[in-house]
């Protein structure tokens, strides 16, 4: 009789109770009791789970030297041998399997294990003899067999840093510029450090930053990417490429990467701008599209990818992993290794990922995708010169089988930068917020190129704006530390006290004109012109003055044009 | 069963309570994970600054963390005074005796330095158990299975299961509220503490102290517009902690502005000599303080959860002396002890029960909720009794009594018995000290008054890591009736100040005018006041976000 009769207990008590029972027979007895008695499905599952667990644990104690292999599945055997470190025992297992069921997959698992056990014991540092995969596993239909480049790329010639520059809605996005800026500094340092090519065979020229642009209006951005740091732009333009689709984009970028070199597709003409095998480094933005493209391109080029990186640098690295050094026990120095730093999922730790050639297989390009905002946005230099290459290639209609039939654009928010004038309103409009907003908008309209900004004090107020102006009270128009930073020629601040958090968003403006009833308001300290007065009166006067073309005069007289009335 | 990560113990919060719990758990090889929401332990914490080691306490901070006094504290307190203030008249009593009653030692501390020092040690100790201390993790609630608390959920990490959950998450404990053990309802159960750390490089000279000496000065009387509470000045190595602690209900009733109350202390002529000509405020901060007499939970546990320190209301205001950190330490260590014992008896579920028993047996509960007080307050807090007592004191008869008692009052003040007895009314806080000063005090004058920064500058000097677009407090009712009290009570808001968290606004709709309140959480210092005095949905910001104190 068992000590514990499940039928006498609530479900909640049974779990804790049986978790200490290790005897499968006793558990079976309980199961029977339950089936005959209450017959509750969850209880039976609980007990059955426990039986399975207990028996698994017993299995866990199998002795590889005596176990009957014919009772085991291939997976069981694979798991078992993983824990065996003694090559003799493994050979014994191998022999038993060959004499028994002789399952080829089991045999290869055991052989693999023998290889790795013995491999790690090699002390003399003999490099392992390389056998191409086809010879080693004649029975395997090697999954990469259909890739003609896999075994071709050994000791290849790799050059340059390629940057995939993404555009969205016809605009070059910031991360593309950030990557170009980073690539520029990386390659400038690289050229100082390594001075041209690795083996000295090809010309000792500096290695370049190459920007890749693909899209319906790719040519529109070629000047820009040069200004942001590229030495050369390779672009492909085609109306069908208006929206990102991974098939044609991948085909195009891979074709560019292999163009002109020994890996170019059969029959592909040489190009005059490139001779090497593949890029040395590739970087992509870790945007939705960039993540998609980077994985496909790097896979197609038979290399690896460090995704979502936030730091990049190039350095030599000592490596001891025998898979990389070729089995010698000594460390080997790898040169020009791109170090790709990425945060782990919690964001607490970083790993640095390296993509390093093996003795019999190259892993190039060394590729990464980069989290937007990780690097500084560089200042463009519009005097920079660079080479522009239009890439030509037939695009197969098959690649466009997926059609984008409809799309929605996320609200991008308001960009207040780049205007001549910003009219900014603060809580001074509190007496009649809707009217205040209207007056501000009137003044905006009077200028050729102006827009409306607001303080955080307005964003978070409880003012009840009327429908037609309500949209102007949203966070997207906030100027300051936690909003936008603007530097217009003229900043007109009405009813704003000038808190430091607001100040940092506007004090680089050329001319600051302030309207405030309080002559002690902090903003006065950093205003060029201070108009003491009620904004509800001053704003309309200013609007009229602008319309008359007398804004400067109205401001300078300190009243906003009162005397002219 | 869902497969969540599991630790034996999870400690939420790395203040003194959490640090003591974690260190004691680790000592007994309990696998312990400590989660702290600040960028660094201490970056969210404020205290006035005197940590006590009580002779009667089973655990003190330096028992658990050797070297604490030398490395984490500022100065020991060797001189202790209370100043009764009426206008410019001041009567000072030396209450070092009261201070030394049951005191093994007492040191002034600054929380950023203290807590981060503790955290380094906690991390070392807990790492060896297979756990460790993680900062920038905001625990946002309890994990339940079949209605039972089995772990915690976080903004930044997946849910974590544990056999013991220690809520050491301070006065605004979200876990204690989630468990239904504490609430944010009654203003009269809390104090609000506001503090400035002031740069005074020559503390030794100004207070006439040797390097191993320190001074504590308390203030009461009419300094504070009739608001019940008092002020303090504590000496640190080369700064001063100057602060005020008020009953929240009184603050709300008087519609007082906390920063102005602090300013009236800072600008009192008495402080003139101490601070000197150049006033340099390093940091302005604030935090709620529980009143253990009213809120210390007598059975602070539920399922696998135990409340430790401020989270369980274990903050004792012993007359003018404030003892929170020491009780948090004791409670943390006792909770850990309880768990270890329960575990060795094979049933960790008994930990909570044992913890509550220990709080009783070790005399902690009696300090937190003195039976004597419960008796006295039945009469004393009654309004009528207050006005009679006030009337008597202010009358010629009362004044005569005060004069006759003269310096014997000093002894009375120094009686721990009396200070435990004092009811929470105007009488001990305002009327009595005022009368004392008026009758016995001497006039103090200053050559100059210091200029304190305004609120906008105080906010501007703080460090914030704003979680843009993700405010941590939501105003549920913006009417003046429901939430208007926050405009003055919030330490970073004020009437007629547009740059604070809470602002009063006149809203006109179709000719109708009403007063409404709006909220911007960016300047928030996470004190917790508006959780009580306004109608809000109150949470802490996500890990690492919000205000970062550098002094504390
Ligand atoms: C102005 C003032 C003066 C005071 N004076 C004194 C005095 O002189 N002497 C004295 O002994 N006491 C004093 N106190 C009281 C004392 O500060 C507290 O009692 C003490 O800090 C309580 O310690 P604790 O460990 O319980 O909580 P805390 O020290 O508040 O620590 C709680 C910790 O938990 C963290 N946390 C909170 N929520 C979460 C979450 N959801 N997830 C993760 N982490 C979280 C916090 O960041 C913090 O680190 C004073 C308080 C104030 C405000
Ligand atoms: C971490 C943090 C980040 C912040 N980030 C930002 C940010 O990015 N941007 C930002 O703007 N703020 C930010 N703030 C808020 C900032 O501190 C101020 O609160 C805010 O800028 C104040 O807005 P205001 O000037 O409109 O209001 P107030 O400070 O209330 O000023 C109103 C002004 O209007 C004047 N006035 C009143 N009536 C009239 C009238 N009829 N005519 C003319 N003048 C009148 C008054 O004299 C006063 O000077 C932040 C705060 C913090 C703590
Ligand atoms: S908003 Fe609330 S929690 Fe924040 S500082 Fe003000 S009262 Fe304190």
Give a quick precis of the structure:
Chain A is α/β, with parallel strands linked by helices. Chain A is 33% helix and 17% strand. Chain A folds into three domains: 6-60, no CATH class; 158-197 and 205-400, Rossmann fold (3-Layer(aba) Sandwich), CATH 3.40.50.620; 421-562, TPP-binding domain (Rossmann fold).
Topology:
The complex is a heterodimer of chains A (565) and B (552).
Chain A: H1 11-18, H2 24-36, H3 41-60, H4 74-82, H5 87-99, H6 104-119, H7 133-136, E1 158-164, E2 167-168, E3 171-172, H8 174-194, E4 209-215, H9 222-227, E5 232-237, H10 246-258, E6 278-285, H11 288-300, E7 305-309, E8 311-319, H12 322-325, E9 332-343, E10 350-353, E11 366-370, E12 387-390, E13 421-425, H13 433-446, E14 450-454, H14 456-459, H15 467-470, E15 490-494, H16 500-503, E16 511-516, E17 529-532, H17 535-548, H18 551-556
Parallel strand pairs in A: 1-4, 1-6, 4-5, 5-12, 6-11, 7-11, 13-14, 13-15, 15-16, 16-17
Antiparallel strand pairs in A: 2-3, 8-9, 9-10
Helix pairs in contact in A: 1-3, 2-3, 4-6, 5-6, 10-11, 13-17
Chain B: E1 5-12, H1 16-27, E2 32-35, E3 50-54, H2 61-64, H3 68-71, E4 75-76, E5 79-86, E6 89-94, H4 96-100, E7 103-108, H5 111-127, E8 132-134, E9 139-145, E10 148-154, E11 160-167, H6 174-178, E12 190-199, H7 203-207, E13 215-221, E14 229-235, E15 239-247, H8 248-253, H9 258-266, H10 269-275, E16 281-290, H11 292-295, E17 301-302, E18 305-307, E19 316-318, E20 321-323, H12 325-344, H13 351-361, H14 364-368, H15 371-380, H16 383-394, H17 396-405, H18 408-413, H19 416-421, H20 426-440, E21 442-443, H21 455-461, E22 463-465, E23 473-475, H22 480-483, H23 485-489, E24 502-509, E25 512-519, H24 529-533, E26 536-538, E27 546-548
Parallel strand pairs in B: 1-2, 1-11, 2-8, 5-13, 11-18
Antiparallel strand pairs in B: 3-7, 4-7, 5-6, 6-21, 9-10, 10-11, 12-15, 12-16, 13-14, 14-15, 17-18, 19-20, 22-27, 23-26, 24-25
The complex binds flavin-adenine dinucleotide (2 copies) and iron/sulfur cluster.
């Amino acid at each position: 009789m068992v000590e514990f009769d499940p039928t006498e207990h609530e479900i909640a008590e049974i779990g804790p109770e049986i978790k200490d029972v290790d005897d499968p027979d006793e558990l079976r007895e309980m199961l029977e009791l339950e089936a005959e008695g209450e017959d509750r499905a969850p209880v039976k599952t609980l007990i059955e789970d426990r039986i399975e667990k207990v028996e698994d644990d017993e299995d866990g104690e199998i002795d590889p030297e005596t176990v009957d292999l014919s009772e085991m599945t291939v997976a069981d055997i694979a798991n078992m041998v993983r824990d065996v470190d003694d090559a003799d025992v493994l050979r014994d297992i191998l022999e038993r399997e060959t004499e028994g069921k002789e399952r080829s997959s089991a045999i290869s698992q055991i052989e693999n294990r023998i290889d790795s056990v013995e491999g790690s014991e090699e002390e003399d540092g003999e490099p392992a003899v390389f056998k191409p995969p086809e010879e080693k596993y004649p029975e395997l239909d090697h999954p990469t067999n259909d890739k003609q480049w896999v075994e071709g790329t050994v000791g290849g010639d790799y050059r340059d840093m390629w940057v995939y520059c993404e555009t969205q809605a016809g605009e070059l996005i910031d991360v593309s510029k950030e990557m170009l800026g980073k690539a520029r500094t990386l390659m400038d340092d690289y050229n100082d450090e390594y001075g041209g090519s690795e083996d000295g065979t090809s010309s000792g020229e500096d290695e370049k930053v190459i920007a890749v642009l693909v899209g319906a209006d790719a040519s529109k951005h070629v000047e820009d990417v040069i200004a942001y740091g590229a030495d050369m732009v390779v672009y492909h333009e085609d109306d069908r490429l208006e929206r990102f689709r991974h098939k044609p984009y991948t085909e195009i970028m891979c074709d560019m990467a292999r163009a002109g070199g020994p890996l170019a597709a059969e029959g592909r003409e040489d190009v005059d701008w490139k001779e090497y095998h593949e890029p040395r480094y590739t970087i992509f933005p870790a945007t939705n599209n960039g993540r998609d493209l980077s994985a496909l391109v790097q896979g197609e080029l038979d290399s690896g990818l460090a995704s979502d990186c936030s730091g990049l640098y190039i350095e030599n690295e000592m490596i001891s992993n025998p898979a990389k050094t070729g089995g010698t026990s000594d460390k080997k120095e790898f040169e020009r290794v791109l170090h790709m730093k990425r945060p782990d999922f919690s964001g607490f730790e970083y790993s640095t990922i390296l993509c390093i050639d093996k003795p019999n297989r190259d892993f190039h390009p060394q590729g990464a995708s980069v989290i937007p905002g990780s690097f500084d946005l560089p200042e463009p230099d519009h005097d920079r010169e660079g080479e522009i290459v239009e890439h030509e290639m037939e695009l197969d209609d098959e690649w466009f089988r997926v059609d984008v039939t409809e799309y929605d654009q996320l609200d991008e928010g308001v960009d207040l930068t780049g205007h001549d004038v910003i009219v900014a309103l603060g809580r001074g409009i509190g007496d009649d917020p809707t009217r205040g907003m209207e007056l501000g908008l009137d003044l905006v309209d009077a200028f050729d190129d102006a827009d409306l900004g607001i303080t955080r004090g307005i964003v978070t107020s409880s003012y009840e704006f009327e429908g037609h102006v309500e949209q102007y009270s949203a966070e997207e128009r906030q100027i300051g530390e936690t909003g936008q930073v603007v530097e217009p020629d003229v900043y007109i601040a009405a009813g704003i006290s000038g808190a430091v958090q607001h100040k940092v968003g506007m004090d680089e403006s050329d001319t600051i004109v302030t309207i405030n009833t309080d002559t002690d308001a902090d903003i006065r300290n950093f205003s060029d012109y201070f108009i003491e007065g009620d904004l509800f009166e001053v704003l309309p006067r200013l609007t009229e003055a602008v319309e008359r073309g007398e804004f400067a005069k109205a401001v300078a007289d300190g009243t906003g044009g009162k005397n002219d009335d | 069963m869902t497969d969540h990560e599991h630790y034996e113990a999870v400690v939420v919060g790395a203040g003194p309570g959490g640090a003591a719990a974690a260190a004691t758990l680790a000592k007994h090889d309990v696998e312990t994970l400590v989660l702290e929401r600040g960028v660094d332990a201490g970056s969210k914490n404020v205290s006035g600054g005197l940590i006590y080691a009580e002779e009667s306490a089973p655990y003190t901070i330096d028992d658990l963390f050797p070297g604490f006094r030398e490395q984490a504290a500022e100065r020991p307190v060797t001189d202790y005074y209370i100043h009764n203030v009426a206008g410019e008249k001041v009567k000072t009593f030396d209450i070092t005796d009261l201070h030394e009653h049951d005191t093994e030692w007492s040191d002034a501390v600054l929380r950023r330095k203290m807590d981060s020092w503790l955290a380094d040690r906690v991390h070392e100790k807990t790492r060896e158990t297979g756990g460790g201390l993680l900062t920038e993790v905001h625990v946002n609630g309890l994990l339940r299975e079949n209605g039972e608390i089995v772990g915690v959920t976080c903004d930044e990490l997946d849910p974590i299961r544990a056999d013991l959950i220690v809520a050491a998450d301070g006065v605004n404990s979200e876990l204690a509220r989630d468990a239904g053990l504490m609430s944010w309802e009654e203003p009269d159960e809390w104090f609000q503490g506001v503090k400035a750390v002031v740069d005074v490089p020559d503390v030794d000279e100004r207070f006439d102290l040797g390097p191993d000496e320190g001074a504590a000065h308390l203030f009461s009387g009419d300094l504070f517009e009739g608001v019940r509470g008092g002020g303090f000045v504590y000496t640190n190595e080369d700064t001063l902690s100057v602060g005020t602690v008020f009953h929240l209900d009184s603050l709300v009733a008087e519609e007082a502005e906390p920063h102005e109350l602090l300013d009236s202390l800072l600008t009192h002529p008495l402080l003139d000599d101490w601070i000197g000509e150049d006033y340099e405020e390093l940091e302005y901060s604030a935090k709620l303080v529980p009143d253990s007499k009213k809120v210390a939970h007598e059975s602070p546990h539920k399922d696998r959860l135990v409340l430790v320190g401020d989270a369980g209301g274990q903050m004792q205001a012993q007359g003018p002396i404030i003892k929170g950190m020491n009780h948090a330490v004791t409670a943390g260590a006792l909770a850990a002890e309880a768990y270890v014992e329960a575990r060795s008896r094979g049933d960790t579920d008994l930990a909570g029960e044992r913890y509550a028993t220990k709080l009783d047996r070790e005399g902690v509960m009696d300090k937190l909720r003195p039976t004597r007080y419960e008796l006295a307050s039945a009469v004393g807090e009654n309004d009528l009794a207050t006005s009679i007592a006030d009337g008597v004191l202010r009358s010629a008869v009362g004044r005569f009594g005060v004069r006759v008692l003269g310096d014997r009052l000093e002894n009375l003040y120094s009686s721990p018995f009396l200070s435990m007895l004092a009811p929470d009314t105007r009488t001990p806080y305002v009327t009595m000290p005022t009368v004392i000063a008026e009758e016995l005090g001497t006039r103090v004058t200053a050559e100059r008054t210091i200029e304190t920064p305004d609120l906008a500058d105080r906010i501007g000097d703080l460090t914030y890591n704003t979680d843009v677009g993700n405010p941590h407090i939501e105003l549920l009712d913006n009417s003046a009736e429901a939430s208007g009290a926050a405009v003055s009570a919030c330490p970073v808001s004020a009437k007629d100040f547009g740059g604070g968290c809470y602002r009063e606004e006149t809203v006109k709709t179709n000719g109708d005018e009403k007063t409404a309140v709006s909220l911007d959480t960016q300047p928030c210092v996470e004190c917790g006041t508006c959780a009580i005095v306004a109608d809000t949905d109150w949470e802490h910001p996500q890990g690492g976000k919000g205000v970062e104190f550098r002094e504390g």
